[in-house]
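Tutorial handout. Part one gives the primary structure; part two gives the three-dimensional structure as tokens.
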Amino acid sequence: MNVNTEDITVPWGQAPDQADHTYGKWRLAVFQDVQESLDGTKLYYLYDPTSDENCITTGGRKGGTSLVVFDTRRKCFVSEILLRVQGRVKFIFALPTPSFTGGTSFALVSQSEDYGTFSLHFWRIHVSADGLSLAQEPAPLLNAPISYDGDFICALREDIPEVVFISGPGLRITRINAEVNSPQEPVTTFTVPQADLTHFYDGFLSKGNVYFVSASPDGTLDYTRVHILSLQTQQLTTQYCQPDPQRGTPPPRREAGIDSIAGFIILAGGELEYESGEIVRLVDYWVLDLTTFTWSQIAAQMPIPLIEPRVTAGNSGNIYIWGDFDQPLPGMPPTGTHLRILRVTGLNTLNPPPYDQAINYNQ
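Part two.
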């Protein structure tokens, strides 16, 4: 199967949808996260007005704390769903089980601060059958929020409906049932001896394990190894990675998009900065097979070089690469950035593209 990348930001070659008159402002917003609906017809963008207001390229806040709904067929925003939760929203995860209405169900994570103490709140959200409103107000998953200090990672398991919260100091793991109907205690909490979250670049869940990737001394991703934490045995091991037989490992980069889908870690885009100060935006795709621990470059590329791209793997198998782009579409302000959305299908063809297609945008 061929890998196909489609820019679904707007209905190219067609007149703008009427919904753009009402919801077009969201094309200029900064979002925290996104997830796909169960039927693949909608994307739910998580919006924090404070983050948008603090961004100098998007023109200030567009509304309140919301899920903003993007229709993948009409290729425009079609609704905004206000969220009444404590704290600032950070992450959203689409659950494989529908809501009681037949719509999509989500786990939501928000963050609050009280006199320098940070806490995370975990919520269950049910969307209506038409996907355009909430079926009921967000409900807490836990009896109490979880306080933490320093860095943290939140991710959803694909094998069972659990959110895994990884925090410091040290390496503390908390597993949370995301499909309970009333607040509960965490499924379990444990600490990994002689390990520290600050030693890792990021972490991803797949096949019942947490796969931690490391950072090189210059702050770029270290492609040579991964550290594997079994959620069952609670043991941490290290696995060295093999390069693509033809292309080696991904070029060192910053600000890349990275996510996991069952059995693979997906890497897209990012930036290279040369000693001369020249910035090169990358448009390549790579995957790390978590069975063979071998990197492969994908025979496809992003049609445009996004600024700090984000990667989101949908339950449908679709991959969404999204982020800011600084060349305005017709009718947009001449300066600043806007949201671009790329949908990638068939991401299982592992033949590498020609070298001249891997890096071809100088910005």
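Part three, for discussion. Confidence is low (pLDDT under 50) at residues 348-363. The domain at 4-359 is CATH 2.120.10 (Neuraminidase).
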